[in-house]
Specification:
This protein has 275 residues and is α+β, with helices and mostly antiparallel strands. It has one domain. The chain has 4 helices and 18 strands. The chain is globular and about 45 Å long. The structure holds zinc ion (2 copies). The site of one zinc ion (ZN) has 6 residues, from loops.
């Protein structure tokens, strides 16, 4: 019996030791420095490892206080945002709508060409992960809608109709109004580029919204410097501490050049949107 028990005991001890080593590798203690999180072999550690950020996310919408956002609630693993998509700022695309008297503005910027569409109100529901995590397999962008700005207006990807990449100063770009948005033929107002009404109000380095994967989107500046597209990864983001996420988080940045908000797909796993 003793000759059997000893190896068994040793085996169990070795298993315990091995498992504790393994679990340390799988769940390293997040570092608390301002450099934020580290990524090793596709596993993001620290603040991107599944912390519940629903309080931070909800506060971002309620602090902004857009009338277009009717509710922000938590449902299981998701933050559920209900909104109309009607911008909280003026636009030439309010002409001929019930908001014309208060929200229409004649956009006189040189180079601007109004498109034939007008703004309408919708019942959008965005369900985005409250504990965003890096996806093991990154998915490319499925539809035009990639996220939601704090004012309740959808964020779109960098492609015009027919999957043509949008380029500065030509094509669809010239129909972006003074606040960077325009309505689709279906009347959904949206931004493909920085929603500058929000950054003019909150600052060019401010949190401006979230992509469908639950990771936040910030403006074009960080620590007083313009963020260059070249300094960001293929998804148009990077990891560092931010005002809202002092322990560090993966986040996207808007840039003046393409792809403007998001790059080649989501860093995390996208939630859903419906209208
Ligand atoms: Zn568009
Ligand atoms: Zn950043």
């Amino acid at each position: 019996m003793k000759t059997i028990q000893r190896p068994l005991f040793l085996t169990i001890l070795i298993c315990i030791l091995l498992n504790s080593c393994k679990s340390e590798q799988d769940n390293p203690i997040p570092n608390n420095t301002t450099t934020g999180t580290t990524t090793t072999g596709g596993t993001t550690t620290g603040a991107s490892s599944g912390t519940d950020y629903s309080t931070i996310m909800t506060k971002a919408f309620t602090d902004y206080g857009s009338k277009s956002v009717s509710s922000v609630t938590v449902d299981g693993d998701y933050l559920v945002i209900k909104c109309t998509g009607v911008p909280d700022h003026k636009s030439p695309y309010f002409k001929g709508t019930s908001w014309e008297n208060t929200l229409y503005v004649n956009d006189t910027r040189s180079g601007f060409k109004v498109n034939p569409n007008i703004i309408a109100s919708f019942s959008y529901t965005f369900r985005i992960p409250k504990s965003p995590k890096e996806a093991t397999t990154k998915k490319t962008l499925g539809t035009a809608t990639i996220g939601i700005a704090l004012n309740g207006v959808p964020l779109f990807n960098q492609y015009a109709a027919g999957n043509t990449p949008i380029t500065v100063g030509t094509g669809e770009y010239v129909s972006f109004d003074l606040y960077g948005g325009h309505p689709a033929p279906s009347s959904d107002y949206h931004y493909h580029i920085e929603p500058n009404y929000i950054t003019e109000k909150k600052g060019t380095d401010a949190l401006i919204g979230f992509l469908l994967d639950g990771f936040p989107v910030y403006g074009s500046k960080e620590n007083g410097k313009t963020v260059a597209s070249a300094s960001l990864d293929a998804y148009h983001g990077h990891t560092s501490a931010t005002k809202e996420y002092p322990n560090g988080i993966y986040h996207y940045h808007t840039t003046a050049d393409a792809p403007f908000i998001n790059g080649n797909g989501f860093f995390g796993t996208a939630g859903t949107w419906a209208k």
